[in-house]
Amino acid sequence: MFSTNPMNIMVERDFYSLSKITAIDIAFMEDWLQTNDPYLVPHHRRVYQSLAFIADVNDRLQRDPKLTSQEKAVLRGVVTETEENLHASIERAALPLLNELRERRVDFLNHDDENAIKFFIFLAHQYFRTKGIRSSIGKALSVAHPQFDFSRLKNVLCYCFATNLGASLFLDREKYDPIVLVNSTDLGFIAGDQPVVNVLSLGCESAPKEMALYYPVTPNTALLWSTREYELRLRVVTRDLVRDLNDWIAWNSTQFLIAHSTGDFRGITNKRMPRVVPRR
């Protein structure tokens, strides 16, 4: 355990590096698109075509010995700009809304359609774009299609899955309650490399059918987005509850945990099952 600036450890080089996407991959994606909401299909197609373009350029950068240094610099710039358009724009759009959450204001989630959809897309991408989720999707693709290496599509599908989830959260928002968790205990909420966790996924061997998304925003403020049919014991934040929620973050993280102080790690372990949410 050591102290450092989170930016020193949380930025992973080549996080979105892609393997070259083949004609078989494109055929797979086109078949998959037919199972999606027709309104989202054009968006998904633009995404996978953009990511295929990035993969092709990266492949050429690595394999074409005839490229000059200037040509390589131009191609890297094109890749960076394309990635920025895909990923950074989502985070930029959500920044003002994260400030709202820090001030414990959540009215925009139910009363401001434009900002709500921006936030739900952001929240869904925070859930899907992590190394743990990408790895699990890659493994699932390998098991389902052992004859082809579709695992290289995990980045593409994670992006599309996040868009689907964000749209679903927005369309179903009347079924959910935004619960702001205010932590006044001596332990702060911790964060990790899986920033958003589903606290209803405990014990689920496959993708859970129900969601209650927990998102720590600051050491003393967190958001829980949960269906109203669950009587969650999360409205009164006790020290034990903070430990349980921190255990959830630890349980779901693969490499990094972040806290305001080392004292917030007291009692944390990712070796015991967290005990946050009772079933109905």
Major beta-sheet overview? 4 strands, antiparallel
Could you tell me the radius of gyration in angstroms?
20 Å
Structural class: alpha+beta
Taking pLDDT < 50 over at least 5 consecutive residues as the criterion, the unreliable ranges are 4-16
β-strand percent reads 5-15%
Q: Give the overall average pLDDT.
A: 80
Q: Give the helix tally.
A: 9
Sheet with most strands: strand arrangement = 1-5-4-3
Helix content: 40-55%
The succession of helices and strands, N to C, reads: HHHHHHHHEEEEEHE
Distance between the termini: 38 Å
The global form is globular
- Let me know the number of strands: 6
Essential attributes:
single chain; four-stranded antiparallel sheet; 280 residues; alpha+beta
Describe the protein in words.
It contains nine helices and six strands, in the order ααααααααβββββαβ. The protein has 280 residues and is α+β, with helices and mostly antiparallel strands. It has a four-stranded antiparallel sheet. Strands 2-6 form a two-stranded antiparallel ribbon. A hairpin with a 2-residue loop joins β4 (212-218) and β5 (221-227). α4 (69-102) packs across α6 (113-128). The two termini are 38 Å apart.
Topology:
Elements lengths: L5 H5 L12 H11 L7 H23 L5 H34 L5 H4 L1 H16 L2 H14 L9 H18 L4 E7 L8 E2 L4 E2 L13 E7 L2 E7 L11 H14 L4 E2 L22
Antiparallel strand pairs: 1-5, 2-6, 3-4, 4-5
Helix pairs in contact: 2-3, 3-4, 3-8, 4-6, 6-8, 7-8
